[in-house]
User: Fold these one by one.
Assistant:
Number 1:
Amino acid sequence: MHKSVSWLALTLLIAAGACTDLSGPAPSGDASFGVGSAEPVTVMSRNLYLGANIDALIGAEPGGFEQAMLDAVGQLTRTTYTMPHRLQYIAMEIATRQPDVIGLQEVTRYTMYFGDGSDDVLDYLQALTGILAQMGQPYDVAAYQPNVSLTLPVGMLGMAAINYTDGDAILVRRGVQWRDAASGHFVNQVTMNVLGNEFRNLRGWNAVTVKLQGHWYRVINAHLEIQPFAPYQEAQAEELIAMAAREPHPLIMLGDFNSAANADAPPGSMTGSYASFLAAGFADLWLNQANMGAGVTCCQAADLSNAVSQLNQR
């Protein structure tokens, strides 16, 4: 999901839900180099959280779908009520640290269709960038990739249906030079089922090249499949590794990789993806953080109602 190391020609940053500074000698043409310069390069990765646990909707039988939808809408009602506050806190963190590049996952867009023919839209990306602009800390949306999009019947709270569109995005701080933005979907995708209708649970990636401290870096942002579908997730990780191998610039990778990196993580939260990145010569920069703690980034209650943090895996 959610480092002194020996730097290889490609460098991976796994920094879900945190700001991380990359500092050291400027890169050279040698196969071993430092990332950053006397002035650190700062990046952030943040999963905005779609606002509800929709797992129960996937594969639900017709008799159980109504209760699963009731639970999901209840969670979404509570989390969207607090969404402006959550986004304001995220924006405050961004404004304080002023990261050069931000990788965002679960950049969600909801369209609620009501029985009277009206609709309402909640767009996380538009809301967050709007708050940042109001704070005088504008960020450019350098890359955005919509992923899975589902329209589901609701039949409660005045709603006839709701459309959920997941996405990933890269934001670049206004004034930072960037180019060559790209986005795409992985080849390996899980096929799921809702009310007898099959769909591909599209997962994707973004990439952009940025000029920081006089040097060009390639930044890739991705959200891999969840742990119960580990073979697909691990195949997606291999796609990223192959993509990285073709890059001519030092590489910073951000994302929610859904592969726990801490040895005391709960059973079932670890997959082979984290080890694959390390075996490919990437470095986990969290391990080189000042005042390093556990760095756990997952997981809270589905409706975010827990007063005590439940985070237990990085």
Number 2:
Amino acid sequence: MIATPAKTPPRLVTLILLAALSTMTLNMILPSLAAIARTFEAEYAVASLAIGGYLAVTAVVQLVVGPLSDRIGRRPVLLGGLVIFILASVLCMVAQNIWVFLAARMAQSAMSMGYAISLAVVRDTTEPRRAASVIGTIGTIMAIAPILGPVLGGVLDTYLGWRASFVVYALAGLAMLAWCWVDLGETRPERADARPSAVSAARTLLRLPAFRAYLACTALSTGGFFAFLAGVPFVATETFGITTARLGFFIGSITAGYMAGSFISSRLASGLALSTMMLAGRIVACTGLTCGLIALAFGIVTPLTFFGSTICVGMGNGLTMPSSNAGAMSVRPELAGSAAGFTGAATVACGAILTSVAGIIVPGPHAPATVLALMLAASLAALVAALAARRHETTP
């Protein structure tokens, strides 16, 4: 067995790759859902559980792995999750019926711990403001993954078939396991000796007003993004006549905004209070959406006004979320893993709710305004949470 130091902070590239693989595990198979349904002679709605069901299980995984990493350490939890991910990817690749495939796909959600563990490791090894800056750097580069994932999946599906995506998953998991074995030593703080259970960690954190504020700000900020994802296909095709071939470009605009905001965070967050960055992001998001709604009210219904305002949401999230994530993990540093896991679970849950709401209320003659109004409601609620975080902020 290869020995590793007991405490070896990983390289930044390791954390970026873990976060990126977590994202690509969700979205790389999106272009293959129809082919998967045909292969197993299943209804498309059943095959789509590979996405919806995956997200639901991800929320549960986040709730478990955070406290578990506080109990036994970041390294064993991450390595164990990677092993599960590799085995599940292989099983998806060779599955001969839809139910075996879906069961293995749900097991792949073990990879979702990569982002939560990455955040916890950052907080373990840096002070809060510096942590926000590092998370901003991770977010800047990681934001490429949601764009590249479906593109790569589509190419693999076209030329090699959908099972090729799971070959790539398995190989990527193996490479990540080998890399983390060498590079990622244990970073859990020595003082984390209480070994909290998930229930006790949740009880401890949720009693703290500051943690609730940081968690709500993160979840609601991301919720605006999920509302955009659910509503924009209808708006783009039915209102603006954008072809599906060009739709990906317009959807990517909000990601470009997020990359810009995360880059700014990586440069400025270490010198400013966490709540200052959070409020700045919420103001950018709310201002952009308000301007977009005003333009629509005056009859200026164009792709520029709509997507220009939603880019502000991406930028606002890039400014807000590195600091809100760092804040959530800093309220009780010895429970950083639990805080990252609970925040991730709340984010998925909030996203699922707003996605469902958008799917119900967006279709109609005023779809652009409905999408922007829903996103603004989430952004305003996140602004309130950011103001609450400012009142409870104790970080110097």
Number 3:
Amino acid sequence: CPVATGSQTIGSINRPAAFCGVVGLKPTYDRIPRDGVIPLSPSLDHIGLFTSDIRSMQLVASVICSDWQKSSGSNQPVLGVIKGPYLEHVAADGIEQFWDVCRTLEEAGYQIRHVNALSHMKEVVKRHFLILASEAAQVHAHWFSEFSDLYHERTTHLIKLGRQKTIEEVTLALTSRQELRAQLSQLMKDEGIDLWVSPAAPGVAPKGLHSTGDPVMNLPWTHCGFPSLTVPSGFDEEGLPFGLQLASRWGKDEELLNWSLPIEAALNSIS
């Protein structure tokens, strides 16, 4: 399958792309129109893409994304690693592999700056799920009243939780999206950072069918709407794939993909 589409409300593009060893793009919020999609949370839903490599992603994104522009992205980007509670969500093997990836990129000539950010990670997660639950309850109100017995248990819980949220709570949470976007944008400007790099998931794919894994590493970029890209970054001892997540500024999807090409080449050396 050379290309596939997907949707991400928390991490359902970047995370499975890592688990499958492919490239996954969650564009800037609303860069791919959501027309015809049954929404879960309109403020958080993103339409994105899966391909086998960056060149393929550039071709497909140029056709599907709105107002795609050619961008050279010729200068080597400065990479930022977030210090603080964000990386604490990564499993032991995942963080060890991530530091190996960072060393590989530094050896390839990339400058990596370690910056304090997302110190309020717990609050970001809380607000994200508040928006998700509230909007899911609104969107599915009619269907749920008629077909509640057909909904998955987790979705049922989400909708019932969303019904309990007040307008004031939801308004505050929605405002936090713009605030986080502004904070991270300003921090990138102040620190001279072009791309944030992080693990695309806490570790490799979990065993079994009971869970699709934790999307927490993708959540901040979905929350603020920044474009984020998963690039394959190696394997564990059992041959399961890891993924590196790259996040760029709002609307800079073209630069993100151009900058990711040499990063992809550098990571191909990791076994």
